[in-house]
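INFO  loader      accepted 1 record
INFO  loader      residues=277
INFO  predictor   begin
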Amino acid sequence: MTLPSDWPAERRVALSVSVMLEGWTDDSAPGIGPMGNPLKSGVLDLQGRSWAEYGPKAGAWRLLDILQAAGVRAVFYVSGILAERHTGLMQAIIAAGHEIAAHGWAQNIIPAYQSKAEETADLDRCIAALQAATGKRPRGWISPRCTPSPSTSELLADAKFAWHGDVFDADLPHRLQTQSGPVMAVPFTMEVNDLPLYIRYGNEPEAFTRILRRILEGCAEIPRTPFCLDLTVHAHVFGRPYGAIEFAKSLEVAKQHRAHTWLTDHGTLADIFSNMP
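INFO  predictor   done
INFO  writer      dumping tokens
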């Protein structure tokens, strides 16, 4: 297996840290939340909306503090609608040295449901909102629900994105060729992700750190290494105190295994793999 020269020697796991900072349009709310029982169709779930709004108002700020204390750089995947409404937070993320990538216009708008024209329009306004809030054009992308349309890769290449993470079929980044040119595909793993682990499947928060430790302790025994692994938290989920405890502990676990673990991020991985033939 050929690796880029910038991949640190003897490191089996490239552990990317990502923070999902998500927003919904005013007529929508998260489809899954802590109450468990969804409301009947056509009723706006104000509890769900309030729960989600914790992310930009409180959770993201706590996660920024934890990352600063740990000296770890992350990619923040941000909904365009949220960037438009929380410019100060966007500027704080950039000032702290993190990268802001695009996460669609709003989480209730799924590219797979859209026409190509609709998807293009939402992509354009997402780029514009993030650029206006940060002064930088986003280089990376993950679709809402990580669910692209057949046109997404081509549209991202046309918009000169460096990478996208709607990819689950590989261990390492690779180049996707589209009719509009190449874009790097950076695989996104779900094993250490607060939303499925805690909200969807009902595990205790400690499962987040326990699973990460299990993977890092056992990676030397796994054939066909190295591989990429994601450590992913949502600002409205593990930005809360119970989750923040585990997020901080997970960064400690990663550092304890630094002999074979490389703490990195999707942007860095996209850059070093893009230089390979």
